[in-house]
Specification:
The structure is a single chain. This protein is an alpha+beta fold and 416 residues long. It folds into 3 domains: 2-89 and 143-190, Zinc/RING finger domain, C3HC4 (zinc finger) (Herpes Virus-1), CATH 3.30.40.10; 90-130, 2-Layer Sandwich (Double Stranded RNA Binding Domain), CATH 3.30.160; 239-414, SPRY domain (Jelly Rolls, Sandwich), CATH 2.60.120.920. Helices cover 35% and strands 22% of the residues. A hairpin with a 4-residue loop joins β6 and β7. The longest helix is centred in the middle third of the chain and has 100 residues, at 135-234.
Amino acid sequence: EASEITVTVHELCEETMCPICLDYFRDPLTIAECGHNFCQACLSQYSGESDVQASCPQCRGTFQKRNLRPNRQLARIVEIARKLGEQEVKVVKGKGQVCKEHQEPLKLFCRDHKAPICVVCDKAKEHEGHKVVPLEEASQELTPFLAPAANSCLSTLSFLQNLANTQREETVAQSRRMHQLLEKQEKRHLAQVDELEKEIARKGEDHLARLYRELSSLEGIMRKLRCSSLLFLFSFLPLSLSIPTANVTLDPDTAHPCLLLSEDHKTVRMGHKMQKVPDNPKRFSYYTFVLGREGFTAGRHSWEVRVGSEGAWAVGVTRESVDRKGLVYFCPEDGFWVLLYSQGTYEACIDPSSALPVSGEPKTIRVSLNCDGGWVAFHDADRGSLLYVFSGVSFAGETLFPFFYVGDDALLTISS
């Protein structure tokens, strides 16, 4: 039993020693992630100057420095182990050992000093008259008295070991709980940040949309102001003094297959079936459009078109580069400056569309183009009144062509 106590004390001492300095723990710290313990000074020296994370010296696992915890229970166990290690176990301790003073085997036991001695010590003056017996005999005599103490020591050591294991398990469990709590907090904070970013983005989009609406409104106001100014100006100019008349004829190579052109290429109307005509790049194949043969890049030009109140029609100017095979919109952005008639309403084709206050039903529309001045105007040629003006246009030197559109029952004729 004495031998068992010695072994157990030795094991306890090993459990209370720092793996770095190989000495008893001093101010022990527990790594929450893995549960290993080290001296505070040893761990600080090992981990270096990093303020965030480091690796465990024992298992090499990564840990956060903020998760280090002082292990006070382990510190108390270390003190107990230190005292047990310093105590001399009288029984069997001298067996197999030699006297420190004479380097002789410790074979005798001095009852007066209660310590093992060698044969040289027995003859020394220090032990003269003392009761000395063989060490084995003393061991047999003292064993019955030491058995209860040995059992108590074994129980204490077992308790301390269990306490150390329990403390380690509790530390690891607490660390896991704390880690889970930190993860939940991190997820909650990230969710809040994500929601804040979305809210900022939504407000930014709303703000941009509002600015766009206000800008569009301002552009509409400016366009109306320019139009009003030009209307006022043009109202004082006689048509005969405005712009010279151009000789415009229709270009059959651009006409939609459903359109029927007169022999002099001055009149166009809708047919009832598709005609077999060459499919060339200039021909419109999606809408029933046709262009004038003559194009303009500079100067001032005008032409008159006789219109009616049947069906739908449109006259104006278009860029040479407009799409002729697909979907387009009657608006300046797509290269059209057009006056449209449909269901008794006259409209300037802008975005948004603008209905025109036209008195009566014009029989002839005069289209005026100023390539250099950047405007297209529409007059009621019979009354001499201005209907609408597209102003502030940048044609950028591109060739412009007279434009014509006819729907069902509509008929357009270019005046000679």
